[in-house]
Task: structure prediction
Amino acid sequence: VILFGVRTTTQDIEGRILERRDISHIDYGEIVYAFDSFIPSYNQRTPPFSARKHHGKKLYEYARREMPVPEIIRRVEIDSIRVLDYAFPLLTVEVVCGTGTYIRQLAEDICSSLGTIGTLFSLERTRYGRFDIVFSSLLFDITPDSVVSVEDVFQDFGRFKVKSEYEKLVKNGGRVHDDMYQDVVRIDSDFYLGFLENMVTGIYKKEGTEFVPEVMLV
Result:
């Protein structure tokens, strides 16, 4: 839900208000037309209050200390934006987007494209990969049968197989060099799952020809 006429430090309603602006009702047709500039992708500035890193430091660490925040621009994929409800100054939309998209920034950018200001009023993630809120469970309803395998959870991650002779090194959290792996499946994600036979060893990021462990699972 986007709130028109307010700008905050964190780009959502929980932040400190920086500006209020009296604006007239924005035409519904203008809003729908504005969406076209974001689909299927656009260059998005990473919000200052985010966990994305620059030189090993998270951006929100700069922002909280009121230091200049490095500008990071990334191309993000926006598959669709659909209006669910419009009761000015609140606009409710459904966004289908790629990994790494910041909805707070998208909300602000939509408002900017309409020549005004705005902030994120509320946000609900309804789906991620194979998970849909329609099939979600309350905490006390979860059973062992509710457990989903790591490879099913991270279907959008790349894959590679570790050669069996390097089992000990990999289990100790070592980097996986190019002569230690095979059968690489490359997709758009920055992350990969490592496999030792049928067991997931961990989540890795690729640096050059090496896979560097981010999270070990063995």
About this structure: The first strand starts at residue 2 and ends at 4.
